[in-house]
From TrEMBL:
Localization annotation: Cell membrane
Protein name: DNA topoisomerase 4 subunit A
Catalytic function, reaction form: ATP-dependent breakage, passage and rejoining of double-stranded DNA
Native source species: Rhodovibrio salinarum
Gene: parC
Family: Belongs to the type II topoisomerase GyrA/ParC subunit family. ParC type 1 subfamily.
Site keyed Transition state stabilizer: positions: R126
Residues at the active site: Y127 (o-(5'-phospho-dna)-tyrosine intermediate)
EC number(s) on file: 5.6.2.2
Membrane topology: Peripheral membrane protein
């Protein structure tokens, strides 16, 4: 087999490690992707596909003052001559160059459906037409004057430019996006007039600080407008390192309506945010009740963006409403800055702002020198021809004689008048009408002008300061054509102040509706609308009845304290409505079968709770520490074996004493400061018992007296409690006369 391969051309077989072969080929692929597809050139700001598109359209003479041609014709020429890739990929690149919402300064003038800001797809290439814009012509200016290098096309049958002359600062003006192998680029668009200002300043001050350059081009200028809300320090840092991100918000205003109501109208979108997708996102958030302050969203856009946001209430502040939308939707986005580009040596690297601007200036200087040399060469050739014409006019009769009589006319002219071959050919190719006196005067005038131009260009080549002055003049011309004084060049993105960190509580937006949480004796729970004062009409299953009825709000958390000493937390939106009998509580929380509910409370942040076990142990706990994040609840009170948690009571802020009564009907009152405040644990003894256990406990203010219920309508307050005052953990004395037989303060 090896002998057969050896006889065949290219039959050399080598043993190579698989890892080496893979790494070699992957590196070649990566470099090809980086250089030939994904990263723009810092000089003209274009990727190869965009450069080839513009050059092919110029070859087709699709200039701004000419007619349009089908996009399919352009794509076909690009595929056939310059870019052998899929037609859809090339057409997508062409479409983007024509979209005024994607490019700050479109390079292609499109006719037909080229997509829109909603994210709709463009029409097929057979339906759309295209031609170059003035900006594209500025990029191509001087390409026939040896301004840039050319290289063979992929099939070797033609030539294509390595880079465009680019008198327009396209990289920063239009930005670039690209993902290569292991690297990416993201450059936002800027205002061309501002970029020219920074370039002019850099010409005068080559070592200018980036801060001074940013004074002249203070930030991106997006084609879709919006407001840049990033502090200057962050912008300076991003452009200094060539990496960062900038925050952009939609532009909006408040529109007053009748009756004191209003609506918010969004008129400009953040860059590269499809409006239709944004509307869908807002609608989804509305359906999921995540935008409680917003009632409706409508898209009333025509040629201009008009997105209407209708608040639920006129009491909602517009700024607060928009702040919630900025946090949850793409009405605020971050635009990446990663100035990773190919330098003049086609080496990918991240540049800072000054390096990018200087690279463009160096390219313009190189283009100016090459165009000047090219023009000097043209002038020299033309002057050579004109010198021959002048010799012919001075010796017209002899020239005519030689032409009529000599056999070797060309050589005779060269020998007789000491002419060059080019001059002799020019004389022989001259038309008879050019022999008039008037033509001789025109030739002498042209000769004089070209001689003066030649001297001026030679002086330009010898004077670097003049060359930089010429580059500055070209930039001023670009600034005049595309700067802020033109409709295309006016700044669209407002430079806003960095927004203050507005902490908008959810409660400011959420509708707080009163509800009554009802739990039956058998543990079926539900939430009924409103604060019910009479629950006698509430229906229960046969054999079941009322146990807890708690007033709360839809925004509250519901705390459940069980006999095992654990707290469980429920959100009201998880509770079933009041039309049926509710649902078993044990399906919502992991309440053991041997445990029962002691108390149900509406959570009040910052409140203190008195938690007590029937053994007499207990302590005060901060209610915020009892909120559980899991279905299994949170262990707060450690219950001794054979006992269970007895009660959970709110502690008023003004309370200074604790009253405890046991099953033996003995009452003890002691100062509140004798009872510790713990996050969890067993606590301390509140009252000691010889028989029975703790029946009830409450915190109260001593000066107000101790109050207990006699029945549903009557209460009694005992103000003289000296007989029951004592130390914590003592036995206490028998309750006062009139204390209910069912020992407790609340029954």
């Amino acid at each position: 087999m090896s002998d057969l391969l050896a006889d065949e051309p290219g039959g050399n077989v080598r043993d190579v490690r698989l890892s080496e072969a893979l790494s070699e080929r992957y590196l070649a692929y990566a470099l090809s992707t980086i250089v030939s597809r994904s990263l723009p050139d810092v000089r003209d700001g274009l990727k190869p596909v965009h450069r080839r598109l513009l050059y092919a359209m110029r070859q087709l003479r699709l200039e701004p003052n000419s007619g349009f041609k089908k996009s399919a014709r352009v794509v076909g020429d690009v595929i056939g001559q310059y870019h052998p890739h899929g037609d859809q990929a090339i057409y997508d690149a062409l479409v983007r160059l024509a979209q005024d919402f994607a490019l700050r300064y479109p390079l292609i003038d499109g006719q037909g459906n080229f997509g829109n800001i909603d994210g709709d797809n463009p029409a097929a290439m057979r339906y759309t037409e295209a031609r170059l814009t003035e900006v594209a012509m500025a990029l191509l200016e001087g390409i026939d004057e040896d301004a840039v290098d050319f290289r063979p096309t992929y099939d070797g049958e033609g030539q294509e430019p390595v880079v465009l002359p680019a008198s327009f600062p396209n990289l920063l003006a239009n930005g670039a996006q690209g993902i290569a192998v292991g690297m990416a680029t993201s450059i936002p668009p800027h205002n061309a007039g501002e970029v020219c200002e920074a370039l002019l300043h850099l010409i005068d001050h080559p070592n200018a600080r980036i801060e001074t350059l940013i004074d002249r081009m203070p930030g991106p200028d997006f084609p879709t407008g919006g407001i840049l809300v990033e502090p200057r320090s962050t912008i300076v840092e991003a452009y200094t390192h060539g990496r960062g991100s900038l925050r952009v918000r939609a532009r909006w205003h408040r529109e007053a309506l009748k009756g004191g109501t209003y609506q918010v109208v969004v008129t400009e979108m953040p860059y590269q945010v499809p409006k239709a997708r944004l509307v869908e996102k807002i609608a989804d958030l509305l359906a999921n009740r995540k935008l409680p302050a917003l009632h409706d969203v409508r898209d009333e856009s025509t040629d201009e963006v008009r997105l209407v946001l209708e608040p639920k209430s006129r009491n909602v502040e517009p700024a607060a409403l928009m702040e919630s939308l900025f946090k949850q939707t793409e009405l605020e986005t971050r635009v990446g800055l990663n100035m990773n580009v190919l330098d003049a040596d086609t080496t990918p690297r991240v540049m800072d702002l000054r390096e990018v601007l200087q690279a463009f200036l160096d390219h313009r200087h190189d283009v100016l020198v090459r165009r000047t040399r090219h023009r000097l060469g043209e002038i020299a050739r033309r002057l050579e021809v004109l010198d021959g014409y002048l010799v012919a006019y001075l010796n017209l009769d002899e020239v005519i004689r030689i032409i009529r009589e000599e056999d070797h006319v060309r050589q005779k002219l060269i020998d007789t008048f000491n002419l060059t071959e080019i001059q002799a050919d020019a004389i022989l190719n001259m038309r008879l009408r050019a022999l008039r006196k008037l033509e001789e005067m025109k030739i002498r005038e042209e000769h004089q002008k070209l001689t003066e131009e030649q001297a001026d260009l030679q002086d330009l080549m010898n004077d670097e300061s003049r060359r930089w002055q010429r580059i500055g003049d070209d930039l001023k011309a670009i600034r005049k054509r595309f700067g802020k004084d033109t409709e295309l060049g006016r700044r669209r993105t407002e430079l806003g102040e960095a927004p203050a960190d507005i902490d908008v509580p959810v409660e400011a937006f959420v509708e707080r509706e009163p509800i009554t949480v009802i739990c039956s004796r058998k543990g079926w729970i539900r939430a009924m609308k409103g604060h019910l004062t009479d629950t006698s009409e509430v229906k229960y299953k046969d054999g079941d009845g009322p146990r807890f009825a708690v007033h709360a709000q839809t925004t509250d958390k519901i705390l459940i304290f069980a006999t095992n000493g654990r707290f469980y937390t429920l959100n009201p939106d998880r509770l079933p409505g009041g039309r049926g009998y509710g649902e078993p509580l044990r399906l919502m929380i992991d309440l053991p079968n041997d445990a029962d509910v002691v108390e149900i409370l509406s959570h009040k942040p910052g409140r203190k709770l008195l938690v007590v076990c029937d053994s007499g142990h207990g302590f005060i706990v901060d209610e915020d520490d009892t909120v559980a994040q899991k279905k299994g609840g949170k262990q707060i009170l450690t219950v001794p074996s054979g006992h269970e948690a007895k009660l959970c009571r709110p502690v008023p802020d003004e309370a200074d004493h604790i009253a405890v009564v046991g099953d033996n009907r003995k009452l003890l009152v002691f100062p509140r400061n004798e009872l510790p405040e713990l996050a969890k644990g067993r606590g301390v003894f509140l009252q000691r018992y010889k028989d029975g256990g703790l029946a009830d406990a409450k915190a109260f203010k001593l000066d107000d007296g101790l109050t207990w219920k006699i029945n549903a309508e009557r209460t009694r307050t005992e103000t003289d409690l000296r007989a029951w005052l004592g130390k914590r953990a003592t036995a206490g004395r028998m309750v006062p006369n009139g204390f209910p037989r069912k020992t407790g303060f609340g029954a």
